[in-house]
Amino acid sequence: MEAEEYGRFSLEVWDSIAPGWERWRAHLEKAMSPVRQWLVRELAPGPSDTVLELSAGPGGTGFAVAAALGDNGRLISTDFSPEMLEVARRRGAELGLTNVEYRVMDAQRIELDTDSIDGVLCQNGYMLMADPAAALSETRRVLRPGGRLALAVWGAPDHNPWAAIGAMILIQRGHMQPPEPGAPGVFNMASEERTRGLLQGAGFTEIRTEEVPVAFAFDSIDDYVSWTGDVGGPFALIIRGLSDEERSAISEQLAEAFAPFGTGGGYELPGVCLTAVAH
Question: Which residue(s) pair with 120 in the sheet?
Fold first, then answer.
């Protein structure tokens, strides 16, 4: 799929699943709490800083920074999906945040001045972009000298059964094609070597990476399937289009594959994010 075509498809997907992200916001925030804490700590924002969040989704990671910015600081919460940005805007209003600006923005073409930002956050966004190298170069451009980027992407598939197992089943059953190397997707930046190389190519010279574990809890297989159909990016569209019979067959395979992660009252599916802070 060409970059322009992928961009249109991706926008359609994320606009369509924004309501699902709003419904599952608390669940997602709980699961991703260790990553959010890591990103906020490593970004180390100060009072009066201007922080840009790319691919903000519901906005939770950036909102965790907003309190540290004070009345004179500013969080620019951005997403390329207008519908997702509205989810963030509603959440920010619920939290009573007054130092947040919301902007629809493509991270591959950041509409901000050079050297205008003190810090950039991006949680699980770069690997889904058609051109992460361009997005990271744009990130470097808008950062002031001494500014830093804190990012997270998903680690290796074998450390992320919450996504890898379901994807494997959908591929085996002919509902999707195996991902092409380098194509946008959950595991596109899973290797430390690739992520570091992209950062270096964008002009970052001081880079530190770390793996941060997370866990997704579900009451049942049906709970997991519903979650995937609500928040699972391109997977969501596939799940929504399945017949009841096919959905049942996939649920049986999932139950067998997820058995090692059973908790007695449901399932706890592990995951690992590759995080990085760069200057």
Answer: 52, 149
Domain coordinates in residue numbering, the chain: 3-156+180-214+271-278
> Would you say 3 and 128 are in contact if contact means Cβ atoms under 8 Å apart?
no
Which stretches of the chain are DSSP H helices? 3-23, 25-31, 33-43, 60-69, 82-94, 132-142, 161-172, 192-201, 221-231, 234-240, 244-257
CB-based contact 140:108 (threshold 8 Å): no
Distances (CA, A) of 6 to 12, 17, 28: 10, 16, 25
Residue 122 in tokens: 């991006």
Crossing angle of the two packed helices 161-172 and 244-257, in degrees rounded to 10: 130
Amino acid letter, residue 228: T
CB environment 155-178: b (16+ within 10 A), e (fewer): beeebbbbbbbbbebbeeeebeee
C-alpha 65/C-alpha 45 separation (Å) is: 7
Amino acid making up residue 113: D
**Distance in angstroms (rounded) separating the CA atoms of residues 119 and 146:** 9
Query: Token pair for residue 179?
Result: 């991902």
Q: What is the pLDDT of residues 205-264, one digit of tens each?
A: 999 999 999 999 999 999 999 999 999 999 999 999 999 999 999 999 999 999 999 998
Confidence label for 53 from pLDDT (cuts 50, 70 and 90): very high
Whole-angstrom Cα distance, residue 51 to residue 148? 10
> Hey, what CATH topology would domain 3-156+180-214+271-278 get?
Rossmann fold (3.40.50)
Whose structure tokens read 């889904």? 128
